[in-house]
Amino acid sequence: MAEATPSHPGESLRDAGRSRRPPSAATAPPILAAHEVHRTYRFGQIEVPVLRGASIAIGRGEWVAILGQSGSGKSTLMHLLGGLDRPDAGRGTIEFDGRAVNLGAGRSLDRYRNRDVGFVFQFYHLLPELSVLENACLPGLVGGWFGHARAAAARRRAGELLEQAGLSHRLRHRPAELSGGERQRVAIARALVNGPRVLLADEPTGNLDATTGASILDLIAAQHAEGLTVAMVTHDSSVAARAQRVVHLRDGQVVDG
Amino acid sequence: MYAALLSNRYLTSRVIPLIAVGAVALCVALVIIVVSVMSGFLDMLKASGRTLIGDVIVSSGIGGIPHYDEWLADLRALPEVEEATPVIDTLGLLRMPYPSGPSKEIAPVQVWAIEPASFARVTAYGEKVWWRPPADDAAREAMLPDDPRLRMDGSILRDGLTLTQGATGKPGIVMGMHVSVGNARQSDGSYRPRFGWFMPGEEVTLTVVPVSESGTISEPRDATFPIVNEVFSGVYDVDKSRVFIPLAQAQQLLRLDAAPLYDTTAEPDAEGNLPLLGTTPARVTKVLIRAKPGVDALAARDAVEASWDAFVAKAARRSDRLGRPPERVSILTWEQQLRDLIGPVEKEREMMRILFSIIYIVCAGLILSIFWSIVIEKTRDIGILRSVGASRLGILWIFLRYGLAIGVVGSLAGVGIAWVVVDNINLIHEAIGRDAPRAAWITTCALSVLSVVMALRSLVWRGRLLPGLLWTIATVTLGIITLALLGHRGTLIWDPSVYYFSRIPSQVDWFNAAITVGGGIVFSVIGAAIPAAKAADVDPVEALRYG
């Protein structure tokens, strides 16, 4: 079923949420899928196979937790799903909305990362020289040479998201002046500023205490409730329990889900 | 847009880029200062040549140019010629009016015998006569209260312009400002009499040696002239050695005036007189020509050459055989005349430009190393930017733009530094030429003591090594500066006797400055390009994982 997707900053989060909401995650075709992907890292003469034919399908509007031990390949799978990395040549594909994203040119992958998915990392990964507002609207500034109107829309959208995240009083602060939880909220606002259809969260609470981690999961849950598809990597089963579906990864392969 | 935001933020939030900006600024300033001074020197050489000798210079051998007044009339009739003036150029010895007592100082001089009126129309002689009352109230205001010119009336200028002592009607002499040691130059460029030896009004004796057309040297002859004024051309060689006397007196002294010619091979008549063959015409050794406005010096020279050929042909048709002009004379433009001087300076300027441009490579290397460390430090940021969709070209552009910004800011700062230095170069030079002021070394000494205290505070009380080291370096540097200031007894860098002019050229060569700024920007971008390419090649996953 064709879906109206918010792909422009400036559209309000709640409006975007309504348009994203699918009728049923279980019956909908996957929006993001990995098919038999392999990824091997090479360190000189040494080859380290991390993913060995992992497959996963994430339905529209679904919240999937990818659970696994350290070194099981969770983050690598997340990087492949997000277009930050590619599978080994000829060994697996990543599909977004029915098209293979890993086979395109570099520019199409850049665009995919900029528009279609949003990343949240364990260590927040905010740029220290930029303010909270500038960090949050960064994806809106990327991707165009003639972007004054686009930048203004991104700032407006980032402001709205930060307000929803309870950070409207922190817009001009630098990341170093924020707590861990506040930084992660900024990272979530940044991930959502371009209205992506999928949020990829890599251990989003892994660096936070339990209370703060819960508040971050609440924020993600609120976005999911508005129709956002979420793929979350974690090694914490209590965190994974917040997802609709849990996928286990072991030795580079999905063992269930 | 994000490239602009990030490169601006990287530039303003860190100290290292400021070091790069400083390095570019110093490199650019250094090149501009050196090239500007040399270009200014060259321009002054050319300008002085033109204002002191006219556009075209005709020089003959020792025999001189006879019937020169006829040729001058021909020259003045040429459409290319504004004015022409005769000159005798010879060497002489000048017996100065000092010191007191019978033994006087003797100065070797270059004597230019001139017709002052036409000479002033060909050259800027009229403007170069120094002792004169201020032209207007503004000029009067600009002079210091003890300037002797404030107490002068117009007669001294008139005497200088006519080479005649008005009070006595005697032919006078005008000397270059530095021929006499009695003139002391002040920091504002004006002169005061030294030891009370004010030259105008004094008398000097000029001795010259007549040389016949055939090269026979006669007995030296001398004449006494009242000094009617002095001339300051700004060209040290001229001001140190040249004197001006009236043409008629020089012709008499040098036996270049019109004179009867007797047949020395014949027997004397009953009264003992030899047969008169005729009258040899008066002669001069140079003719200086001013071209009409808008006429190129080369075109004027061609016209003068054609006129000379016609003059020689006309002389050949004369019935008398006396006073035949030489067939060959040297006819040169002012630039050709000064080629021996200008050519080496031009080559030297280009050599300096090339040598100093090597600094750019150092500059590019510095930026490269600074950027390399920044890229390594910013690897994680690059991964973050890639994760939000920044392309490799976008990352490349951030760092190229960063380098461009450093190049532009550094180069413009360099132009500013160069402008301040060049504009005040004579003041700076004069300050270096004096003993260091007491306040300067007391200040640096006090700062040095303060640095010692700060170094001890950092190292001993607070246990901080880096600030302690920086304060120690400051202490040593300030100590060395204090010792240098204490030992400084004035250094003459720009010696007028070596560099021809008494003042250092102080005009920025804006054309060369623009080229230098362009070079600074280009080499800054080149220095940034390699780290920028490395940044673009950063693997985002590796960057996020290990950055």
Shape estimate of chain B: elongated
According to CATH, the fold-level topology of chain A is Rossmann fold
Number of strands of chain A: 10
Number of helices of chain B: 20
Overall, the morphology of chain A is globular
| Cα-based radius of gyration of chain A, to the nearest Å | 18 Å
Classify the helix fraction of chain B into a percent range: 40-55%
Main sheet makeup of chain B: 6 strands, mixed, barrel
Strand content bin of chain A: 15-25%
**Whole-number tally of structural domains of chain B:** 2
The number of helical segments of chain A is 9
- C-alpha Rg of chain B (nearest Å): 34 Å
Distance between the termini of chain A: 24 Å
* Unreliable sequence segments of chain A: 1-26
The computed structural class of chain A is: alpha/beta
At the first level of CATH, the class of chain A is Alpha Beta
Helix content of chain A: 25-40%
Structural class of chain B: alpha+beta
Report the mean per-residue pLDDT of chain B as an integer. Answer: 87
Overview of the molecule:
- The complex is a heterodimer of chains A (257) and B (547).
- Chain A has 257 residues and is an alpha/beta fold.
- Chain A has one domain (13-254): P-loop containing nucleotide triphosphate hydrolases (Rossmann fold).
- Chain A has helices at 13-20, 74-81, 106-116, 132-136, 138-141, 148-164, 180-192, 210-225, 237-240, and strands at residues 30-43, 46-59, 63-68, 93-96, 99-100, 117-120, 198-202, 229-234, 245-250, 253-254.
- Chain A has a 6-stranded mixed beta sheet. Chain A has a 4-stranded antiparallel beta sheet with strand order 2-1-4-5, covered by helices on one side.
- The model of chain A is unreliable at 1-26 (pLDDT under 50).
- Chain B has 2 domains: 1-51 and 338-424 and 506-547, no CATH class; 81-292, no CATH class.
- Chain B has helices at residues 2-12, 16-53, 68-76, 116-122, 125-128, 137-142, 154-162, 236-241, 247-253, 297-316, 334-337, 339-377, 379-387, 392-423, 425-433, 438-461, 465-487, 496-499, 510-536, 540-546, and strands at residues 56-59, 65-66, 81-95, 106-114, 164-165, 170-171, 173-176, 183-185, 191-193, 203-208, 221-231, 242-246, 259-262, 276-280, 283-284, 286-291, 330-333.
- Chain B has 20 helices and 17 strands.
- The A-B interface holds A 75-76, 79, 82, 84-85, 106-107, 110-115, 119, 121, 125-127, 129-130, 134, 138-139, 141-145, 147-148, 150-151, 190, 194 and B 1-2, 5-6, 9-10, 13, 380-381, 383-392, 394, 540-541, 544-545.
